[in-house]
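Quick start: what a row looks like.
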Amino acid sequence: MRFRGWIPLVLLTVLILGVGAFTAVRQDAFLTEYNINNLLLSTMPLALVAIGQTNALLVGGFDISVAALITMCVVTASFTLKPDETTFGLFLGSLAIVGVGLATGVFNATLIRVLRLPSIIATLGTFSILEGASLLLRDHPEGPINSDLIDALNTSIGVMPVAFIGVVVLAVLADVWLYRTRVGTAVRAVGLDEISSRRLGMPTGLIVFLAFVLCAVVASIAGFYSAAQVQIGSPIIGDYALTSIAAAVLGGASLAGGRGSFIGTLLAALFLSLISNILPLFQQPTEYGQMTIGALILLALVLYQAPELIARFRSGRQTVGRLRTREGEVPA
């Protein structure tokens, strides 16, 4: 089990180094300070929203609404983080954006735990509501966002963005929490078997509720970095719903719940951003990136879940063998 947990980390590290080395040999522009800094900054929104998505996957759920939530946060930023805002006004505006994420998380969690709706259906409904609200507030890109705040979000030490260092520390601490604390063990237990966890006295309802709230709040923080990229209140932002799930799955999360790695998710987000970064350097269409992501997800599902697939195959063969034996014992 420990070896299986390291597979995603090793595989993603090899892929990042291999693809990076190949690109560096073929394209001189790849290792420039500007490109590396841009790569790490562009990874920020996906890394954060994927880390949030991992929380939902750990308890056996999905949050499709994160894509529309990030868009809503960017649109909200165009109203609350205006260029002429004071420092205190920017602080209040930032709280408003996080509040949007908190309210969305509570709404999703209530639909899932109180009304007992499947997470994919509940968050899909929330997605439509947020998407419609964003278009209602901004039917086209407008409303510049405070440049001082953008500069603060993009602050770097050399080629390394300060925020990216913070995300790395967050991912490491989150994995320590997940695998070295009782609460983290409880979260994984709920994802693996909620009924058994409830019988053992674990607060399964509260754990699932908080997982979806945390997912939305982290997605709202990702909205800050998405806003720093577009720098305007755009109602059309990239599809982070599928890519966040893809990053979490590539990082080792199980679609059935109970397994995942925040470090793996971060590495997967970096790799997916790397693919998007190098395609223009080779003058290749971005559609190749989408095809690569889809192929990698299928490969990850087969590779990471190979033991379960083999066990099911053997169990099926044994069942068929028993049935044939019983049929042979029945007198003619």
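That is the whole record. The chain has one domain: 2-287. Residues 2-287 form a domain with the ABC transporter involved in vitamin B12 uptake, BtuC fold (CATH 1.10.3470).
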